[in-house]
Amino acid sequence: MYSELEVRGLSLKTILFLTLPLVIFFLGTINAEAANHYVRAGASGTATGNDWTNACTEFTGACAPASMVRGDTYFVADGTYSSRTFNTPASGNLVITIKKATVADHGTETGWVNTYGDGQATFASIITFSTSYWTFDGAIRDESNPPLSWFTTSAYGFAVLNNNNSAQRQIVFGNPLSNFTMRHVWLQGRTGGFSGAERRYSIDTETGGTSTDLLFSRNLSTDSNQWYFLRGTNRTVIEYWAGDRLTGDGNNHGDAINVYFSAEDVTIRWGVLRNACTSGCTGVIPIADSRGTSTPPLVKIYGNLFYDFGSTDGLAGFLGNSSNGGNCTNCVVTNNTFVDGGAEYASSWGLQFGDGSGNIHRNNMWFEVNSQIPSFSLGSNPTNTHNAFGPSAVSTGTNAQVSVPSSIFVDFATKNFKLASPTSCGVTLSAPYDKDMFGNTRGSFIHCNWQMYY
CA-to-CA distance for 138 and 81, rounded, in angstroms? Predict the structure, then answer.
């Protein structure tokens, strides 16, 4: 006869014996669902994509979108690659990751040589995404001296080029999609004068439907007349971004981040814009009620630096928009620094939310030396407090500081807009609005600017 303990022991052994194969099978299934594949221009192996020796030479064959495997990662070596449409059907929430191979992160060692990952992978425009759940990640950019180093175009792992100035757009959505992430990418927009109406959009999301849950992080946009054209989107985050040399004309309105209709719940944070909209620009961030007149856009703009720019209808918002249903309702503008803005056609620049309501304007620095004084139309029932102005701007709101001199910055002449000394305004805000682009907490009396003084 077996004792009770022996019976229990046998039962446990039996359970382990029966379940262990199932566990092993389950773990094997997980591993089988997440594999690495390899793409290297100039590879001369079998092009299976199984390792660096036998890498696919393009997103063709075993690495073509029709053959790509959901849940897998496709590492890309330095080199030049063609325009492509990524339309692999979605499978649940499995993400396909297209990632720049680096010396530190490149998957298998088989066939790997460090020179495959010490430069840039460039793509010809247009890159189209037509299905959901993608990550397009260049993996690296220059973080040695932010934000100035963010403008080093060669330091981004991926570059989507303008095809010798022939491509109008770089990243395009082919269908409404969801859960799309793009990181560490330089988007080289088209340059030069316009010829009629041209859709020079670095990122164009317009599909006739609604794309949701989009993340654009640590990307650089240069030239073009629209960097982020977000028509038909809901829940978009643009963060740690950089933009340079936005242009436009009478037929091609220039807008850095276009949130004008059918764009809802957009967060714009911890980025830097320069040399934008010297002519032909509607606004840096045009905003109007999305999806008709009843849905507020819910735009949050915080922790950014904007300098040397112009606009027609205000830095953010839209002048005279009541006939279109109002603009910027429940929007947040906090902890930004705006330097040397200008108004091309209107008499002033600033925030134009006149037909909106419930907006928040706090802890911002507005600094002008070009005699164009910013003005503010914030709509009904705004929160408008603790902003700083200099050297001649008229204050707005409560607890404002005026006549701030250029010596407040570390080096105004070289465009180092970190604070050299504390300002007297500022109020402690709740997360995430209390942080600057370097993660520093900004509180009362010292943080009207985008970076802590030192």
Answer: 14
